[in-house]
Amino acid sequence: MIQRIVSSREGLLLAALLLVPACALADPVQDYATHCAACHGGDRLGGTGPALIPDTLGRVRGIDQVIAHGRSLTQMPGFQDQLSAQQIGDLVAFLKAPLAETPTWTTADIKASREMARDYTPAAAPVFEADPMNITLVVETGDHHVSVLDGDRLEVLDRFPTPYAVHGGPKFSPDGRFVFIMSRDGWVQKYDIWSLAEVGRVRAGLNSRNIAMSHDGKWLAVANYLPQTLTILSTDTLEPVKVIDVTARDGTPSRVSAVYQAPDRRSFILALKDAPEIWEIATDPDAGPFHDGYVHSYEKGATEAFGAQQGLFARRRIPTGEPLDDFFFDPGYRNLIGTNREGTKGVVINLTSGGKVAELPLPGMPHLGSGITWDRNGHKVMATPHLNEGVLSVIDMTDWTLVRQIPTHGPGFFLRSHETSPYVWADVFMSERKDEIHIIDKQTLEIVRTLIPAPGQTAAHTEFTRDGKYALVSIWEDDGALIIYDARTLEEVKRLPMRKPSGKYNVWNKITFSDGTSH
Ligand code: DHE
Fold this sequence. Notes:
Bound molecules: heme D
Strand content: 35-45%
Strand order of the largest sheet: 1-8-7-6-5
Structural class: mainly beta
Distance between the termini: 32 Å
CATH superfamily of the domain at 370-518: YVTN repeat-like/Quinoprotein amine dehydrogenase
CATH architecture of the domain at 370-518: 7 Propeller
């Protein structure tokens, strides 16, 4: 068994609080403990919610408004009924005050946190009879577990504990045998699907966003908010092989919104939260050289490149007009679509030239990370939900035009389909009609049916089995369920009780980069 390592973070907070005059902070400290600590950590270094310290809040505006009214699209509620304007003001001042010690998480800390399971012995072949390529992992956030589902018999083969607050898609090794799971507090867990056993875990950051697998399965990149780094782990040993400080060309440190795998380019692509740059990190030992820029040397009478990097993990900067995040890639990873901070438009950047190819009219916070693609009238199209508007945008990826905006019963979060399915499954999770799932025809772009899997209960996130025969929907409640539909007839086949199931990930669909899944 693996013992979860508790760091000295709680101690850090205590020290921070003790060093601040008690009279000045008595109330905000209490208010923080009562209203904020459960999600943002007793030490303000983050939990399910992000860290609340100057290093991460520095560029965030309107914190008082966020505390009062909450943040739409996130799980942050508003507190205006519980806290007065004075209390909110004091709380903002408290959050903006630096901790007594700046939190650090060095390569040595990462190494020291590494725990490999002592009782793990790799199996020579899968220890079950099911098709290992048709395994679907179900993340159950209610009690921090993952269920391992046999996609043919629709039975749970194993259920194992995960680190706290898993976020984003787990990433599989290219052969589908191992899976890596990340939690918002920076832990990365490695699990062997063949052996149905945990291999180990390591804390790659204090406050992390997501992970990405290299094209060859050797490296796992972890995007961090805190510290402002990208941690690269060996997938074999979970040891940190490189920790890259993320600092823009002008010296501004930046959080990493997300890291994406770009297997066709043999690289990782990074979205920088606080700088107008996209980074590409090579996973190819022969990459580069990439230059940060050019200067004219009057002494030598020539223009010289500076900041050159070459080989494995070489970094290439792609300057953009404004910070972009929430990326989607076209097939072949030639172009990237990102959104601006305000979520008012989409920008298409050619990853080879770094130039802007197009701008897309995508108001209402498009959630490109949930985008999926399919073929329609000989064209590849992509669809994205919008977190602020009850609409799905369908974009033609050959000429970057908007094909249609499909009105839905409210804003949703996730889309899924499968090559064998004529339908897109779209939730409306962020709306009052959160118990509905729209079934949309991929050719006519019409909603052909709306399912209500469990009336009054949140239905969100669909995944298909390997062959597309079944569609699995989460009833996203603590006393929830996984509802399995026949993907062709849209009839319910089975219901498995689960604890707040969130994302689901089929091995085959993920390792083959199926059109119907977000990557
Ligand atoms: Fe997510 C994926 C960002 C809030 C559940 N989410 C992702 C990804 C990004 C992202 C960049 C793609 C990473 C990947 O899979 O490698 N999410 C964000 C946010 O910026 C946002 C809006 C605010 C935040 O708090 O970070 C946000 N996300 C949420 C939630 O509140 C959700 C609904 C509940 C939760 O668990 O936190 C949530 N996000 C998910 C899930 C995925 C995800 C289940 C994987 C979807 C998939 O099918 O691949």
